[in-house]
């Protein structure tokens, strides 16, 4: 069965942006990699920027939907936050090139940064809601949920990127254990250190 042209374009764009970065990638490169005419890409996307933002939006949506589909109402806030940590780590391991694109290019042009932040915020709202629930149930310390969500997302993302760019084997279980330890040693009230 042949892949649809859109899925070919999507994968080619991920490959090219990951390899060359946004600034050096061209629509010609993407068309050649997808084995489609450049006009086919321009039929769907007005510019390289629009294609790039589409990729990021789709990737963040895939991450968010994947996590949301596994969160169950009867889970405790700790179980939910553990699941979020594990799923984000697994996602970056499965979609390595997307991880590289998302994190390496997030510091690009100011307009692109604003779009990135909007897209990532939709995922971080999910984390915030779990932190708020944990605070309400007195399972977590009283913290600023927005700070925790951005810190948690950033900590996991940068740790994953460090491994991926260092071309080391991506051991999701080991990374999860480290991130879990860092996350919950500071959030859980039980066994808390006297600060």
TrEMBL record:
<protein>
    <submittedName>
        <fullName>TetR/AcrR family transcriptional regulator</fullName>
    </submittedName>
</protein>
<keyword id="KW-0238">DNA-binding</keyword>
<dbReference type="Pfam" id="PF00440">
    <property type="entry name" value="TetR_N"/>
</dbReference>
<feature type="domain" description="HTH tetR-type">
    <location>
        <begin position="3"/>
        <end position="63"/>
    </location>
</feature>
<dbReference type="InterPro" id="IPR041490">
    <property type="entry name" value="KstR2_TetR_C"/>
</dbReference>
<feature type="DNA-binding region" description="H-T-H motif">
    <location>
        <begin position="26"/>
        <end position="45"/>
    </location>
</feature>
<dbReference type="InterPro" id="IPR036271">
    <property type="entry name" value="Tet_transcr_reg_TetR-rel_C_sf"/>
</dbReference>
<dbReference type="InterPro" id="IPR001647">
    <property type="entry name" value="HTH_TetR"/>
</dbReference>
<dbReference type="Pfam" id="PF17932">
    <property type="entry name" value="TetR_C_24"/>
</dbReference>
<dbReference type="InterPro" id="IPR050624">
    <property type="entry name" value="HTH-type_Tx_Regulator"/>
</dbReference>
<dbReference type="InterPro" id="IPR023772">
    <property type="entry name" value="DNA-bd_HTH_TetR-type_CS"/>
</dbReference>
<dbReference type="InterPro" id="IPR009057">
    <property type="entry name" value="Homeodomain-like_sf"/>
</dbReference>
């Amino acid at each position: 069965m042949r892949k649809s042209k859109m899925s070919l374009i999507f994968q080619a764009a991920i490959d090219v942006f990951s390899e060359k970065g946004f600034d050096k990638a061209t629509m010609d490169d993407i068309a050649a990699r997808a084995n489609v005419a450049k006009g086919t890409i321009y039929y769907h996307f007005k510019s390289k920027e629009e294609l790039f933002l589409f990729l990021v939006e789709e990737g963040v949506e895939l991450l968010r939907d994947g996590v949301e589909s596994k969160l169950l109402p009867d889970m405790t806030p700790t179980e939910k936050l553990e699941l979020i940590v594990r799923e984000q780590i697994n996602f970056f391991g499965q979609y390595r090139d997307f991880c590289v694109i998302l994190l390496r290019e997030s510091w690009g042009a100011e307009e692109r940064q604003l779009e990135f932040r909007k897209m990532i915020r939709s995922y971080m709202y999910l984390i915030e809601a779990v932190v708020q629930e944990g605070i309400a149930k007195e399972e977590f310390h009283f913290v600023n949920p927005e700070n925790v969500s951005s810190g948690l997302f950033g900590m996991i993302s940068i740790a994953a990127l460090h491994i991926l760019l260092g071309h080391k084997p991506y051991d999701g279980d080991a990374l999860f254990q480290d991130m879990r330890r860092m996350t919950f040693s500071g959030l859980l009230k039980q066994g808390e250190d006297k600060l």
